[in-house]
Amino acid sequence: MNPLFERPLAIVDLETTGADPHRDRITEVAIVRVEGGEVVDRWSSLVDPEMPIPYRIQEFTGITNEMVAGAPNFRALADEIAQRLAGAVFVAHNARFDYNFLRAAFAARQIAFDPPVLCTVKLSRALYPEHARHGLDAIIERHGYAVENRHRAMTDADLVWRLMQDAAASFDHDRLLLALRRAGSEGAAVPKLPEGDLEALPEAPGVYLLFGAGGQLLQCGRSNHLRSKVLGLFTGRGDAKSVKLGNQVRRVETEFTAGDLDSQLRELALLRRHVPEKYPTRSLGWSFIPNRRRPPVLEEIELHGSDPLAWREVFGSFRGQREADNTLRELALLHRLCPQRLGLENGRGACQAYGLKRCDGVCVDAERPEIHDARLLRALASLAPRAWPWPGPVAIAELHEESGRAATHVFDQWCHLGSARDEAALATLLSEPPPRRFDLDIARLLQRWLMHPGHASAVRALPQRVV
Fold it and tell me: Please, which residues bridge with residue 256 across strands?
């Protein structure tokens, strides 16, 4: 007997109003019963969720409020569903989702539900490790399946059955047995799915927030393929660290964006909101004080929130004191500069670097201050602020065609003046632009984004008088 079919199988697919098994409800259930490698029963039913189906879910599954209005509720179907699942291995694609929904629904009826589980996402990964994607859409494409009514329960259950048949015909006994060990688990070992509408996520750019049991933020991130990224955390994909993280998550929040730049800007805003202590806004630079005899000859200048066009002879832009001082120490070492004159050391007389023969002695009058300072200015020249490449403000438009999400970002002198989601909002932004306020993280973010091949061509210069 093929190891895939040694035990009876109940291949299950559910459609639901969302992805939280304790808040959302089942709208359709399909069960394909397999015994001895043969289908012995196929059954499906729409289910009245007794709550409205969100519009985005209706679009995703094709199941509308009108379609379920006359269907039985889960209470009426619970006993029949339990009988059809009895004595079989519970099989589903991303089994964690379907299993948790049925467990919650049965618990409300005080029906025990703890079967052994086989997840065919994990099975596919074990058998086809050369492929990066193992969702049903990827499997359809990989195997060339012809499919109608995708995201309906029986269609998806049949797809899982076809995948198992192909696997049984393509691999030997030992390979299948090893894959089963990796893909199966006992019911009690299936972790709980976090709250959030995960199944309705599209493959679109966006940001995500992962929260733990105590409501604490575990991770904030972004992806150009939000669905794959987020669901990957809860289907056993990835390294041990990712799997551990997925098991800690209890709630997920997501936001769609228009593209990569939009995602980066939104991610930064969310991180500053949730963990401000890790993402301070302070940034500073240096200004040289000419003709000064006594140290220090450098003055710290607070840059955050200022207008770069108002800067005069500013060198460097640093997130904080430590980053600024470390950079200054490197310059001192490379150019034999005096730490005392730079303000890195207090006191009078010989600096520590002079004793190590790393300072030419301006601190002990062995070098004239103007010679030392000329060398300092040459060293600081490498830290001059990066010139703005355009004569005035620019607009960067992004559009994700499948979701229709659009954004136009307006920048000037590395400052983000704002983002508009439509033409009316853009017209308002350009007619009443805010003042330039420097933000080091945004400046670095934009500079990195522009280094990517092709991104600079998306920049549209605006008339200088606009902003």
Answer: 206
**DSSP annotation of 278:** G
Please, is 173 exposed, middle or buried when counting C-beta atoms within 10 Å of its C-beta (0-12, 13-18, 19+)?
Answer: exposed
**Catalytic residue from among 134, 151, 372, 416:** 151
**Using CA atoms, how far apart are residues 344 and 353, in angstroms rounded to an integer?**
11
Query: What angle separates helix 120-127 from helix 173-183, to the nearest 10 degrees?
Result: 140
Tens of pLDDT, residue by residue over 406-416, are: 999 999 999 99
**Tokens 């099975």, located at residue:** 123
Contacts of the segment 107-111: beta carbons below 8 A, 24+ positions apart:
108/74, 108/75, 109/74, 109/75, 109/78, 111/78, 111/79, 111/82
Strand ranges (DSSP E) for 238-363? 251-256, 284-288, 298-302, 314-318
Which of 158, 163, 98, 91 lies closest to 131 in space, CA to CA? 163
**Spatial CA neighbour of 115 closest among 99, 94, 98, 101:** 99
Task: Tell me which residue of 176, 156, 51, 175 sits closest to 95, measured CA to CA.
Answer: 156
**pLDDT higher than threshold 60 for residue 466:** no
* pLDDT digit string, tens, across residues 214-230: 889 999 999 998 877 88
User: For 197-216, what is the mean pLDDT?
Assistant: 81
Please report which helix (H) or strand (E) contains residue 232, including its range.
Answer: helix 226-232
Whether 151 is catalytic: yes
Query: Of 53, 50, 51, 56, which Cα lies nearest the Cα of 64?
Result: 53
Angle (deg, nearest 10), helices 369-380 and 321-335? 120
